[in-house]
């Protein structure tokens, strides 16, 4: 148990000086009022009453663990903010798209590098250009992984009132919207520009996303067939009628069977549709796992071995 003490401010020197000028106190020894008994009562008062009067805080082991986890997350976020460069892109819609960019380790001008696009979930929307680094970013920024698979990692942030795919997440099924969302279209324009100017290998552009980003991943591979080399949608959903357009695309889909935020059937129906058209897509369903099926996924070394082995077929 950890004890935090809040002490009110006062002039210690003046209090100490006055105590030296005062005569020593008289100690009375009435029955039941010995110095020892007084000390015990004073100690009891201090332990039981003062915490509420002076700001003591008693932390249970669980509370202390949560505080330590919060501190660790804050330290990690601070480190990621330094590794992922803050950027802004303005596309055809003339609205700024904020994003973070992780560059390849040991970048060499003239060399082409793979690019990974990560689409975050609904909870990380905003305009601080930091919240989208909460999930997955640390896994792609792992030092050994960066050395093994040098690549660009693009992490855009969707504005608060927008989505990667304009569909209703609460429904059991959905159709591919006629037009790309403003945010997804801006991301596509950013990737096109990077392929032209930043030394990106157009044959090795990968996409992954979780929750809202999972929906965005399914939307993007259906909307831009032949653009991506592989896709990793996590706890999302798409339109099963669109699978013909990406039936040959390497896909590894993940979902928890206890997910109550996005029903596992959304991934199952996509995988069943892909299987019906002969797709080689892979599917991992975590038993007993709820909405957070991304932590286990992005921490799995096999994912990266599989992902960076994929290459887009020439048109």
Describe the overall structure.
The chain has helices at 12-21, 35-48, 50-54, 61-83, 137-140, 143-148, 182-197, 212-223, 265-276, 294-298, 301-307; strands at residues 2-4, 57-59, 85-90, 96-102, 113-119, 152-156, 200-210, 230-234, 252-256, 282-286. It is an alpha/beta fold. The protein has one domain: 3-Layer(aba) Sandwich (Rossmann fold). It has a six-stranded mixed β-sheet. A two-stranded antiparallel sheet has the order 1-2. Residues 1-32 and 42-57 have low confidence and may be disordered.
Return the domain count: 1
Beta-strand content estimate: 15-25%
Low-confidence stretches: 1-32, 42-57
The CATH first-level class comes to: Alpha Beta
Radius of gyration: 28 Å
Percent helix range: 25-40%
Helix-strand category: alpha/beta
Q: Give the full name of the CATH homologous superfamily.
A: Alpha/Beta hydrolase fold, catalytic domain
Tell me the major beta sheet. 6 strands, mixed
Mean pLDDT: 85
Biggest sheet: strand arrangement: 3-4-6-5-7-8
Give me the CATH architecture, please: 3-Layer(aba) Sandwich
SSE order, one letter for each helix or strand = EHHHEHEEEHHEHEHEEHEHH
* C-alpha termini separation: 64 Å
Number of helices, where a helix is a run of at least 4 consecutive DSSP H or I residues: 11
């Amino acid at each position: 148990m950890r004890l935090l003490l809040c002490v009110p401010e006062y002039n210690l020197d003046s209090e100490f000086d006055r105590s030296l000028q005062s005569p020593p106190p008289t100690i009375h020894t009435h029955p039941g009022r010995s110095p020892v008994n007084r000390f015990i009562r004073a100690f009891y008062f201090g332990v039981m009453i003062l915490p509420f009067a002076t700001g003591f805080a008693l932390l249970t082991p669980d509370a202390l663990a949560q505080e330590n986890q919060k501190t660790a997350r804050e330290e990690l976020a601070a480190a990621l903010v330094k590794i992922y460069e803050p950027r802004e892109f303005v596309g055809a819609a003339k609205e700024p798209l904020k994003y973070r960019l992780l560059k390849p380790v040991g970048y060499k001008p003239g060399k082409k590098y793979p690019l990974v696009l990560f689409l975050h979930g609904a909870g990380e929307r905003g305009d601080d250009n930091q919240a989208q680094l909460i999930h997955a970013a640390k896994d792609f920024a792992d030092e050994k992984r960066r050395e093994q698979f040098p690549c660009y990692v693009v992490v855009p942030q969707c504005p608060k009132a927008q989505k990667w795919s304009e569909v209703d997440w609460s429904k059991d099924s959905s159709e591919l919207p006629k037009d790309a969302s403003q945010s997804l279209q801006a991301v596509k324009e950013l990737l096109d520009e990077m392929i032209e100017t930043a030394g990106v290998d157009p044959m090795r552009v990968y996409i992954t996303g979780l929750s809202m980003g999972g929906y965005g991943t399914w939307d993007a591979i259906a909307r831009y067939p032949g653009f991506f080399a592989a896709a990793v949608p996590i706890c999302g959903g798409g339109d099963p009628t669109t699978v013909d357009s990406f039936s040959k695309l390497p896909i590894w889909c993940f979902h928890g069977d206890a997910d109550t935020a996005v029903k596992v059937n959304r991934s199952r129906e996509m995988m069943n549709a892909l299987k019906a058209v002969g797709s080689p897509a892979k599917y991992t369903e975590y038993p007993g796992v709820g909405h957070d099926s991304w932590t286990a996924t992005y921490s799995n070394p096999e994912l990266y071995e599989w992902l960076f082995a994929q290459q887009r077929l020439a048109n």
